[in-house]
User: Fold these one by one.
Assistant:
Number 1:
Amino acid sequence: MPNTLNRPQNRRSLLKAGLAGAGIAAGAGVAGMAWAAPAPATLLNVSYDPTRELYKAINTAFAAQWKAKTGQDVTINQSHGGSGAQSRSVADGLAADVVTLALAWDIDALADRDLLAKDWQKRLPDNSSPYTSTIVFLVRKGNPKASRDWGDLIKPGIEVITPNPKTSGGARWNFLAAYAWALKQPGGNDAKARDYIGKLYRQVPVLDTGARGSTNTFVQRGIGDVLLAWENEAHLSLVEEPGKFEIVTPSLSILAEPPVAVVDKVVERKQTRGIAEAYLKFLYTPEGQEIIAKNFYRPRNATIGAKYGGQFPKLPLVTIDGQFGGWRKAQATFFADGGVFDQIYKPK
Amino acid sequence: MTTVRAAFAWRRPSVIPGFGPAMGFTLFYLTMIVLIPLAALALRPWEHGVAGVWKTLSDDRVLAALRLSFGAALIASALNVVMGVIVAWALVRYRFPGKGLVDAAVDLPFALPTAVAGIALATLYGPHGWIGGLFFPLGIKIAYTPLGVLIALIAVGLPFVVRTVQPILAEAEVEIEDAAATLGATQWQWFSRVLLPALTPAVITGFSLAFARAVGEYGSVIFIAGNMPMRSEIAPLLIVTKLEQFDYAGAAAIGLAMLVLSFAALMVINGLQLVAARRGSAR
């Protein structure tokens, strides 16, 4: 709907640009140049921590495709950080044409501030998540502490690295994956799951503010025995430091759906809705999905998923809606002030 | 009319020309840069009333963080006073090869982005780092503990002490030292009765600058602190955490508490300075 509202304005500015262009060209006496390439466009994609490499590849491919299709040059700037921090930056006025964050809650928070429509998640296929991922363990070569499943992580002497769920989206997925595993154990209930999660966080020596920070703590600084990591981030570490780490797939994890959305308020002001929407739709094309799989995110496209199937082991995955009643509820129960996470650190 | 003029007259500030524009500019500048932002901070936390602010500030975790931030800043600036005076002394009194480089190195913590300093310190003092690796077998963990916070605060505060003390030391002429010696003063008497009184105001200024900087330091600490609630979580991190949950009022409440505490600390330090100055002039 905002699309149609926008159109007359677009046409007017196009007309203006055309007239101005014609004027200049006529003045210069080169009428043939009046219809040269349209003015270059700039988009800002505000994303979460571990997507740097993914969007670098996507941006190059999309810019080439857009240029071939429309003749317009487009530059896509990327901004990365903890998902919550990025969401707040946008809420505070960072002019993001599109947001590609770690979890729906961080975009819901923007919808609550009327930056985009409340039903944003229904505007693109698959809950607006063109790729999924899950949480796995990254351990040191040979898995010296034999950490094979969630239950092993609370054994004495094991150090677990995970970021702070208050500031990091990935950390919230980590937390909920662990919690879901504890719930699904024989005789599991909320009390037992809370007990498990409390023990788990007592094995954590450092709480970084973002997923990339935790990866650096584990990989570069050599702290900890197990890193709870995005699957894509774990694969990236294997590529960057070959032979030093291995991935352990736990018996159960969570289906992480990092969603994408056009920020209505921003694209209306900058008149970039068309290109911003094309950019996000590009993620769903076979070309986009292939780049996604190459960067170790699980693609939605079944054909490409099958092609890269070897790097994505099958494991039971709980969902945020099925297990925890959606992000709003999970956020309030677990991560709000005084929630389950805060209780862990309450002095007895 | 005349009474108004009279009221002003006793306060006529200065006969030096240009007072009006200079004062006007000063007030305007301070208002834009300091007073308005601080006023905004002071107004922000009251969304949920006094009870809301109290609830935020009386939380164990917030109290632990404030204790750590102010405690570590106090210790770090106290250590910096001792070390800073020694460094300044070495730089002023001795000539040695590479002095220029050493002198420049003191300023590095000013110039480096704090995050760079933090990452470098965390790597160095981590259990597998050059320095941390020496202590780790002894059971002493530096990075990711409150000790790590202290190291970072010492690093960012050092130049403040050195740079305020250095010029005063340079001015304390060797002739005065010789004069004291000819009058029969021992080395210790010269140090405690001649040099120290001259140095005290500068040392206190250096201390308060280092302290103020350390209390609010975020960038470098965050990488080395470990950020564990109740243990190694600094107050500025809690502010950021609250902001990221859109709890602007809670964040502002902690900010305001830090402001008030810092202000009180600096007032005490200024008072000490006044006492020191009076004692110096009475002598």
Number 2:
Amino acid sequence: MGANRPDFAEFYRRSKDECLFTVLLSVGDRDTAQELLAEAFARAWASWRTVSRHPAPAAWVVRTALNAHVSRWRRHRREVPLADPGAIADRPTAGEAFDSPVDPRIMAALLRLPERQRQVVALRLFLDLDTARTAAALGIAPGTVQAHLGRAIAALRADLMPERQKEIPS
Amino acid sequence: MNDDDLITLVREQRGSVEMTTPVDQIIGRGRTLRARRRLPGVAAGALAVAAAAVLAVTALLPAGHQAGRPLPAQLTAWTVTRHADGTITVTVRQLRDPQGLQRTLRADGVPASVTFFGHEPRACQRYPRMSAALMAEVFGGHGPPLVIHPKALPHGVGVQLNPMHHPHGAPIALAAGLVQASPGCTGP
């Protein structure tokens, strides 16, 4: 394995922003997402001989970053359940929760998707994985991927274009 | 707008953020990780710390109120109680008034940063020497309520409180961690 690993540098340049957006969708904080992703890319470099042969190296990196996020929560936080999670005041819009120039309407709509649908959207639309690779990455059947994507797009359409929904005769 | 247009619109969002970490920095860290993998003792030690640090949550509010102390007449969003032994109990029922909770904790001598929504202050830096043992000393039992032992805080270390979100988005727990104390994070 060459020390310079030019293919890794190209992979990083090509996929870093899409991966960052995908991780940002899950962790909600840009600095945290970038920190997690930097570590995940470093692990990819350290195991590049294996990762470069992975059918979807970007998905490997994203998954590694998200696994690290879960581990970090467990290791570094003391968690105490809220008495009444439903009784929450002054909940901000998604735009306030993200320090990035994303469209707050679209980000809010994405965040409202159930987790599995959001994962499918992230892998299919943001990382450009095909159905089979998305299914393999998530450990679900290809048909389930398509079903989740269909529901996600319907939900996004209803969320982002409610007025157009009303125009469609039933 | 058809489905393809909608997908294009959503896809355009991924170009709205940029990963700014230089590739040389990534590779430098990668070299460190690879070198560390060749030291099996280090890896095993890290795993042991991670396993020991997994924290369980076993009860629900408000059952954890201190025995012998009257319940508040009116349930407020949160309650901070300072006890004779110096420990501080934090009971959070609703995610309201984080600034008030932060002020109260600071007034009780706990360098604290409380964020219920949005970002943690950029000035807040995680305490690099975090360990399961230190967490147990500072935060005592597994709550709820959250118990803070201010005397166990190392010099220059503060407490950070923010909500932990369920994967579906709703906050379900209050998470406490340790940060480096600084005026911009935990107050003067």
Number 3:
Amino acid sequence: MEYLGYITLTIFIVTMVLTLFKKIDLPVQTVLVLVSIVCLIVGAIFRFTTEGFNSAILLPNEMIGGIILHPITALLAGLFLAGALDATHGFDALKVIINKLKKSPIGLAGTVVILINLPVIASLPCGRIIAAALLPLLFSFGYEGGMGILTKTQLIVLIAAFTRNAMGSCGPSPIGGVGQIGEGFLGAFFPTASDGILRAPQAFALIIGTALTALFIKIISQKLYPDDVALSDKPENQEEDEKEALPEIKAPFRGYLSLIIFVASLLTAIFQPFGKAMPVQTMLVAGGILIILLCQAKIQDLMNGIILLPVTAMASGFMAAGALAATGGFDALGVILKSLSTVQILGVAGMLAIFVQMQTILPLSCSRILTAALVPVLYLFGPAKYNLVTWPQLAIVMAAYMINATTSCGPSPLGGGGTMGEGQMRAESGFIKGAYTYSSMAIMAPLAAIYMKFMNFTVFSPSNPDFSQNIITIILYTFVIIAISIGMMSLVSRMVSNNDTKNWRLQLIYFLISGGIAGAVLGFSVYELQYIEIVQGFIGGVFAAFLIGVMVPKALSVVRKTA
Amino acid sequence: MLTILSFLFAGALSGVIIAYAMDMKTPKELLQGAVGGLIAGFLMAMMLPR
């Protein structure tokens, strides 16, 4: 059985890496289904020869048993409701509100900040929904889009930051969000974990991480890839009145009504005023039915809202995870990582610092694929099996892992969500990769860990005297992390030259130092002031940052020619 | 309450950084960015479990 686990784990990892490097030219979901079938066949043969026919025949049952239905049905219900909103012009109503906000005292600056953070506020189960609805609106702010109120640089930053926020918003979503996969496991210690124990750390990390992404795009990415965004600025000699007049944004009454029903359903799903007896899915479907009745939407419209990618990604991820679990693949991975933690230079802290960055190292089109496979492994590190960390320590690591995982679809070259932003800003593929991976690795993962430790435990375990909220510490650490990042960012920006290789090496060094700091912060969050663990976290973080940094393209035009 | 405060802080800070990154660097624009961030942070915090 032990050997079988190593065999199936090898099959899984090798096929995932080959898919990432486009050596296997198939959709990742197809690859996962094929991997599951191959693992099952190998497992069945292995069991038949070692344990007999009865053991082999049970294998498919064990695999299917690993599929968790709750996040899948919540995701379907969320997409169903979002489809209703889209079909009844609810997003048009949102655009009208944004347009009015622009003319209010908060001005353009305040409006774009709200707009950029709208995906996390809306909490949809997949960032692609809101990105598809609002990216064309953002594009219209530029010269080519007609309004001409933002320059090319401003528009690039706006679109990149908005897409970053969107491709991470599925994590803290209470309606089928990725984080729910981890919350289920933490429920073993925190009884109310499924109410959203991972949501606040993720949202906190995202709001800061989005801002740092904007800054990275502005002062580094645009210098590294100056000719790789095809957007244009308004010609200097163009008269103001030559600007093409855009039709006024309007929305029908049913658009406003569907938006109100949508918000009400979302709030009811989040706060559960009817208690646990009324599941999230019921509230969302009820909202969908109300929209059908009151806003004249058709069932077909609602079905159109269901984006298959995240659903199939989650289902195929669970299938592969089930196959790995049934054949001992997770046990093998657990043993490998546990033995990694015995290497003195890494220890448990260093191994965890690498583990939390795993999905940014291997970014797939939807984070749910690997999350479904890797969260059970992380769970095994806790008191449930290997006892490497306590329950609260596991929750801290889970928060860091989850935000890193959920934002990994952004920089994925396999049709990740970030490609939507790149397409909208007419950028070469890979333009956002550095900024997105940097913010996930160096900003969001450590901030989520810090937030979980110093703010979130008391919400879910109020009677435990070991937990307390310390907002001063949160503010202090956020300032320190931001100050170090911005300081190094501006230093790198000043040192950028015309030499692509030199620039790439410079960026890699920046990643290594930032990754090390992120690992050290994680080490501190988990072990407090134990210096050996903090150093081990730093070393693990450097190792992970190396694997992430080497994947950032040197020059985008080269990527285009060789693709 | 502290959760809301932490998100107001994160929102305001994020708003200022975004406004700066978008070349909106006058005190008025930075303040508007901070207010936008405060609103975003508040809305996010209100959606969280307490």
